Amino acid sequence: MARPAPSTRPEVLAPAGDLISINAALSAGADAVYFGLSEGFNARAKTKGVAAHELKGVVQRCHEAGARAYLTLNTLLFEDELEPLSKLLIEIAQAGLDALIVQDPAVALLARAVAPRLQVHASTQMTISSPEAARFAEGLGVTRVVVPRELSVSEIQRFAEQTPLELEVFVHGALCMSWSGQCLTSEAWGGRSANRGQCAQSCRMPYELIVDGELRPLGDVQYLLSPADLAGFRALESLKRSGVSSLKIEGRYKGPAYTYQTVQAYQRWLDVLERGEQSSAQAEEALQRELTDLSLIYSRGFSDGFLGGSDHQQLVEGRFPKHRGVCLGRVTQVEGVKVWVTATGDEREVTGGRAITEAPQEQTRSQRALEIRGASAGRSDSLPLLGATEGSARPALAPLSPAPGMGVVFDAGHPEGNEAGGRLYEVTQRGPQRWELTFASEELLSRVQVGERVWVNSAPSLLKASERSALQPVFGRLEISVEVSGALGAPLVVKASVQPRHRAVTYHARQATKLVLTEALGEGLTEALLRSKLCGFGQTPFTLQALKVTLPEGLHLPVSTLKQVRRALVEELLSALEADQGHPILTDRPLHVARALLQRGSVDRQVGPSPVTPTLIPLCRTEEQLEAVIASGLKEVELDWMEFIGLKRAVERARSFGLKVHIATVRVQKPGEQGYDKRIESLNPDGVLIRHWGALTHFAELRSRLEEQGEGRPELHGDFSLNLTNSLSAQHVLGMGLDSVTASHDLDISQLKALMGQVSPSQLTVTLHHHIPTFHTEHCVYAHLLSHGADFRSCGRPCEAHRVALRDHKGQEHPVIVDVECRNTVFNASAQSALSLVEDLKARQVRRLRVEFVWETHAQVSAVLEGYQGLLNGTLNEAEVRRLVGAHEQFGLSSGTMTLYEKPIQGRTS
């Protein structure tokens, strides 16, 4: 499927959590709808979804409304789910879905085995974030990539220029703080996995800022990882020009009114763009009114997200984690049942204090980023202002006129508490931007204080109107062409054709009347009569696009006959549409076929014989930790130099002591960042720890070239961030050239054993001890809270002078580390250990056991390595190791998961 030309109008893709929301999307004019299965495999597990037996009817309903139907099978699969999903895919293909949206490579491989005509789209959860990664997706049979929400319009344009795949871009709705597919907070802190559709929304929780071990008060700024919602209207013109295929709206957890209102808003703005009126004052005012209405339906405040590039001051306000609506102003007086409110001009000012850090004299991280990526690094995208202040990443809203019945909440800085608020009983204008608000009782206002913000968070009239519209039946979305011909004494012949947007096929119908045409006493069969009676398709899926009449004048046929022909045409076309709805099924044993295909292309890449004792692989992030590894006598080390600064020196230092050196790639790769892989390549490592699909493509191709030249380096090991949870996905990437894959952190003990039953344990790495990397985010906490800078060019680089941690509501302090691209990784405060699994892993011949460090000192690293070395060689038992590494009480992710032991990371060391 080719990507649309830049002039082509992209589809508006609507979310639907249930059947009512599907109808809302269709009523609003969505070009496509995406929804999940109630049976599961759905990244929005709490939505009602669509049952498998309802799929065929839902798909037909979408198609008759001129829309495409996409099914989300966008979770990771465990080993015991491969067979059930294989059978379910047959039913899904028969239902005629236009595409599947998938996260796990195994789903794509199974879908290709079942029905190759069924399109597969790579979910944003798959983290296909660059053209190099898109080549991996192509190998799975993927035809479209849902790009990460972290990409700017210029990065999306570069992506589009370098891949034949279609691109789908989120333009509206909630933003995830973490890169999709790379968030482990729900699992680490809530015992449920976001990669399994059970996000606990840890980003919406309050946190305290710890700087160099000390609490930094921020006033009422507590929600440090809760981003504003995305409203991408300002980017649509650029995205359309880039040839983006689909504009995606987030919101399967939201209701039909949200779906209806949002779809209509984006279709209307696309209409404005097509007419070239986007710069007019009228269009801008209309859009601002649209944004105000959307804010009342649902909003945490709107921003451009990352579409305009990184702006660490705009993405997160930090004062609330939930729907707020439109800020009316601040309370100036409270008396009885009345409140006086005045607009202050800027309702977004942050009341918490921030410490501004002076910029160091030496440039390090920013210098390295510019060297590798070029001058384009940083915030460089320009979006039209649309009424916003220059440089703002927040689109402007129209002024709101409060009215009786609207909902109001008073913001005292405690959004998770029992906030005061209620319905407006009466509104009186008391001057420009000043109102007297009357409520039903004094009790509602008993806790309201002067100075509090006032938010209008609902408009019942708007909500009810949207809900009524969302329930309306959908007719007349398929454009039909009709040809009418005949002669005196011959039957009337009518031909009709329709080409729905969801198919590249044109459907034809032909009807000839049983009665012959006779002479008319009056005007006869005029074009107007034929349009009215023959082509008045009314409450059907069809609407007349073109009518061609080839008839002599003065011919007659009863109107009842014309209506019969019309009904027959409609039935014939609907039958043709329905008959062509399903996809041809190639096999009823897709898992068997997929395994056979992988086996045919597999290559045994085991590096040497599997030792009786597994190799303990330490992963270091500091020079101090590397020195502890050198002193331990281990022969191999993985270097995860988050900043790429001093990496060459660390490689040389490790090699001087005879260590094999493996270098970790960055966690994700955006368009234009392939220089980091080339940087690693230039250091000639013994191995590479592959963390993103682009790196897999790059280093697999590199190793193929080296093998052709008779060289054997480097080894390639897939890390946890590839999210490999089943043998089908694991075997696919092993066949591409990996020597081992790391078992995903989503696996519990039983699931890990199931995986080892299908994949050679010698090709598996198990993480034995680590602090789970919970968030991996494009947003920089350092820049946001320790500077006023938008990006590394203006932030003063506080990360080079300070250490930051986030303290959660349980008092745990989670370290925040910055990488070479200023992305932040928030690590869990407590270490997780698979101590109790070691004997079983040894018996199964697992070759590599990884131990990871974050901020640990030389002494801490030495103690941990001594403990696990002793356990592997039999000189220490589990209890002794637990005491040595400082393990405390156990807490589990879920029943049967790997055991977790608390070991808080110490503060900054010199």
Describe, in short, the structure shown.
The protein contains 25 helices and 38 strands.
**Beta-strand fraction estimate:** 15-25%
Could you name the CATH homologous superfamily of one domain? Answer: Aldolase class I
User: Biggest sheet, in brief?
Assistant: 8 strands, parallel, barrel
Strands side by side in the biggest sheet:
1-2-3-4-5-6-7-11
Q: Output the structural class.
A: alpha/beta
CATH architecture of one domain: Alpha-Beta Barrel
Q: What is the CATH class designation of one domain?
A: Alpha Beta
Count of helix runs: 25
Named CATH topology of one domain: TIM Barrel
Into which percent range does the helicity of residues fall?
25-40%
Mass-distribution shape: globular
Protein architecture, described:
The chain starts with 10 loop residues before the first strand and ends in a 26-residue tail after the last helix. The strands form 6 sheets. Strands 1-2-3-4-5-6-7-11 form an 8-stranded parallel barrel, surrounded by 4 helices. The chain has an 8-stranded parallel beta barrel with strand order 26-27-28-29-30-31-32-38, surrounded by 5 helices. A 7-stranded antiparallel beta sheet has the order 16-15-19-13-14-18-17. Among the domains are: 11-175 and 227-278, Aldolase class I (TIM Barrel, Alpha-Beta Barrel), CATH 3.20.20.70; 478-579, no CATH class. α1 (19-28) packs parallel to α9 (256-275), α4 (105-114) packs across α15 and α9 (256-275) packs across α12. 29% of the residues lie in helices and 21% in strands. It is built from 25 helices and 38 strands. By secondary structure, the protein is of the alpha/beta class.
